[in-house]
Design goal:
Strand 5 and strand 6 form a beta hairpin. The chain contains four helices and six strands. It has a single domain, classed as Roll (PH-domain like). By secondary structure, it is α+β, with helices and mostly antiparallel strands.
């Protein structure tokens, strides 16, 4: 029961109840999604994965920068993890495990098989 129906006086009847157009629900919802999505979008744009002849590097952020590095001499295993969607669209995680419980992840890397192969070639 709506507020209007709850506040009727004696002998008063509701003829019609009107609502706000659905479009005006969509605009705030999209705005909220955009505002929530902006930090995630920037994280995607400003994330770099790198491989040198000596180390593997993950860099995230632009203002507050975070880096993770793993020397190739410390890498013990290189794993590839792909979901069904990842196999279809060509993305996946490459997980490097190093000595001393260190782990470095290339999350949602494009063409993860090529990434793993490049890392494996540097480990030889």
């Amino acid at each position: 029961m709506s507020y209007i129906e709850k506040t009727l006086t004696t002998g008063e009847e509701v003829v019609s109840i009107f609502s706000i157009h659905k479009l005006f629900y969509v605009i705030p919802a999209l705005t909220s999604l955009i505002l929530i999505g902006i930090p995630a979008f920037f994280k995607l744009i400003f994330t770099e994965y790198g491989l040198t002849n000596k180390r593997v590097i993950v860099k995230t952020g632009v203002i507050g920068r975070s880096t993770e590095e793993l020397n190739l001499t410390k890498v013990e295993t290189v794993e590839l993890r792909q979901t069904i969607l990842g196999r279809i669209f060509g993305f996946g995680d490459v997980v490097l495990s190093g000595t001393g419980n260190s782990t470095l992840v290339f999350k949602n890397a494009s063409n993860p098989i090529a990434v793993k192969k490049a890392i494996d070639n540097q480990l030889i």
